[in-house]
Structures are given as structure tokens and as C-alpha cells.
Write a sequence for this structure.
């Protein structure tokens, strides 16, 4: 039986602090990115709706970003339209807005693409929320109906137990 030395216990404590700080940093960066994508989507949505921009201008924007920000990824024409869709889908939905930054952009896009029905998306956000203290399902703010998910919801996953 091996006994932990006081130094080894301190090492473990420091390792845990490092891991906790990494997780906080990841969440902070994720929150800022989701907020950025929200605002980019908002600008694109308003410009297109007001007929200031057509779809071709979004492609020009993607080219401009690629030229002026070499090495920056994620701002292709397709992703810019996804940002617009993200904004348009959730604008004014206060009950879900607290959850948007808790998930990665990829998971937000998966949820957005899985169903056109709001109640299914609400259920998925509640299921995927990592932060129980801010989960509107647990606090009672969001009460998704029990809805069966499409059989094609998540390839390779049980459609009633959606997990990543």
C-alpha cells in the first residue's frame, strides 16, 4: 500500500487548480465567441432584412474577413449564414439565452439543425446544459413538453436519450 506524501498531496491540489482554471478559461472564451457569433448574425440579419445586403454581400464579407484576418477560421460564407440563423432563431427567447453560451458553437449548431420545433430544441438545451445552477429547466423557468424526437435526430444515438 503506497502512502501519499504531503508533497504529492500538494501536487494533486495544484493540478486540480490548474484544471479548474483551464475549464474557466475555456468557458470564458466560449462565452465571448458565442456572443461574437450572435452579434455578427444580428448585423447580417438586419442588413439582409433591410435590403441593404443581398446574399452576395455575405460572400464578399467572408472574402474580406479571410483577406484581412489571415489564419482566422470559422468565418466562411456558410458559417456567416449559420450565425444569422442562430440569431434569428433565438432572438427574443430569454428562457434559452442563458443556455446558449454554456454550449460550444458546434453543439449549438447541432441543436439548431436537429429540429425546427422550439419545444424539441428547448428539451435538447436542458439536456445538454453543463451548469445546473443556470439551467432554466431545473429552476422552473423553462418547462419543455415531453416530446418524442425524430428518429433521425442523432445518428448512432438513442433518440430518447440524446447525449454527446
Amino acid at each position: 500500500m503506497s502512502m501519499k506524501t504531503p508533497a504529492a498531496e500538494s501536487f494533486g491540489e495544484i493540478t486540480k487548480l490548474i484544471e479548474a482554471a483551464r475549464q474557466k478559461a475555456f468557458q470564458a472564451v466560449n462565452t465571448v465567441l458565442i456572443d461574437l457569433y450572435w452579434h455578427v448574425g444580428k448585423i447580417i440579419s438586419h442588413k439582409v432584412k433591410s435590403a441593404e445586403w443581398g446574399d452576395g454581400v455575405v460572400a464578399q464579407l467572408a472574402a474580406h474577413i479571410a483577406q484581412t484576418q489571415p489564419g482566422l477560421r470559422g468565418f466562411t460564407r456558410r458559417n456567416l449564414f449559420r450565425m444569422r440563423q442562430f440569431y434569428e432563431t433565438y432572438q427574443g427567447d430569454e428562457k434559452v439565452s442563458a443556455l446558449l453560451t454554456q454550449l460550444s458553437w458546434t453543439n449549438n449548431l447541432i441543436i439548431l439543425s436537429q429540429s425546427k420545433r422550439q419545444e424539441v430544441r428547448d428539451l435538447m438545451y436542458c439536456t445538454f446544459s453543463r451548469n445546473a445552477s443556470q439551467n432554466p429547466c431545473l429552476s422552473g423557468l423553462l418547462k419543455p413538453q415531453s416530446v418524442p424526437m425524430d428518429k433521425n435526430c442523432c445518428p448512432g444515438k438513442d433518440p430518447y436519450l440524446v447525449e454527446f
